[in-house]
Design a protein that fits this description.
Oligomer: single chain
InterPro entries: IolE/XylAMocC-like, Xyl_isomerase-like_sf, Xyl_isomerase-like_TIM-brl
Largest sheet: 8 strands, parallel, barrel
GO molecular function: isomerase activity
CATH architecture: Alpha-Beta Barrel
Keywords: Isomerase
Distance between the termini: 22 Å
Shape: globular
Protein name: Sugar phosphate isomerase/epimerase
Strand content: 15-25%
Organism: Streptomyces luteosporeus
Strand order of the largest sheet: 1-2-3-4-5-6-7-10
Helix content: 25-40%
Number of strands: 10
Number of domains: 1
CATH topology: TIM Barrel
Length: 307
């Protein structure tokens, strides 16, 4: 044994690492700027991941038998599906919301997934940066958001046996430390879990380790991501919307950015619960040959963290 070699990180045996179409530059079900789904599946397995998310509904095959066959023969398993909701708009959007949630939840359950990642609606368009509504919710809209999310959690659990994990996200109404805390304090911890995305939370000024310490019982799922602090400083100074910020490289591969993932993973391990930790490096659009080398390096880095 080399006495000068760094000590191996303690194994994170409660953390199940995966990746997602997002790390291959996939934001939409069908877009010529994105790699074909077959290439994503081939490369995510080649990079050393076992778990994946479905990504935008319709990007991967939506017929369960075919999707199970395509993932299974590559040694891949599905952790979760993803939906966007606008529950702050009140009961009038419920039927439309449930229609799109149900199809994603049904596919997720059919292929063995256990979670549904719920992302609030953007308040500005992620392509054009046009403001679609106010970035600030009224007290009534906060009530709609909290009660609607609880209703959604109950329905998803009862109908599909899935756990929802609400994802704080840049350019949505659940973004900063204050807004995340307000949302968590307004919802039932027995019903509504949180997907902590380390990159988005840092992008919006939050401290992931502190969030885990304060609201550990709410952490149901993790997205692993880092931001480039130099790029972020310019984004904040100019008020750049999230979509253009991604094209400027605000999200970077670890360990080149913040937050440091080692303490985040250690804090998550300390919760004593099994958690998915899915790598998501936003980089839409990107050259088709860019994602695989980054994915390999990221997976190797996470192994040095014990994951």
């Amino acid at each position: 044994m080399d006495p000068t070699a760094p000590a191996a990180a303690a194994p994170l045996d409660r953390i199940r690492v995966g990746s997602a179409p997002d790390s291959w530059g996939v934001w939409f079900a069908d877009d010529p700027a994105q790699v074909p789904w077959q290439r994503f599946l081939d490369e995510v397995a080649e990079a050393g991941y076992e778990w994946i998310e479905l990504g935008p509904y319709g990007y991967l095959p939506t017929e369960p038998d075919r999707l199970r066959e395509e993932t299974g023969r590559r040694g891949l398993r599905v952790s979760a599906g993803t939906v966007f909701t606008a529950l702050h708009r009140g009961p009038g959007v419920w039927e439309e919301t449930w229609e799109q949630v149900a199809r994603v939840a049904e596919l997720t359950r059919a292929v063995g997934g256990t979670h549904l990642v719920v992302i609030p609606a953007f308040w500005r368009d992620d392509k054009t940066a046009e403001a679609l509504e106010s970035p600030h919710l009224t007290a009534e809209q906060w009530r709609h958001l909290a009660r609607g999310t609880e209703r959604l959690a109950d329905r998803v659990r009862d109908a599909y046996g899935l756990t929802i994990a609400v994802h704080p996200h840049a350019d949505t109404h659940i973004d900063t430390e204050a807004n995340v805390a307000r949302f968590l304090d307004a919802t039932d911890p027995r019903r509504v879990g949180l997907c902590l995305d380390t990159g988005h939370y840092a992008y919006c000024g939050g401290d992931s380790v502190e969030l885990i310490k304060t609201y550990g019982e709410r952490i149901a799922y993790l997205h692993l991501k880092q931001v480039d602090p130099a790029v972020l400083a310019g984004v904040v100074e100019r008020g750049t919307p999230f979509g253009p910020a991604v094209r400027q490289g605000v999200m970077c591969e670890p360990p080149r950015g913040v937050p440091a993932l080692e303490p985040v993973l250690a804090a998550a391990q300390g919760l004593g619960t099994d958690l998915f930790a899915i790598v998501e490096q936003d980089m839409y659009p990107c050259p088709p040959d860019q994602p695989l080398p980054i994915a390999r390096r990221t997976r190797a880095f996470l192994r040095t963290c014990g994951a």
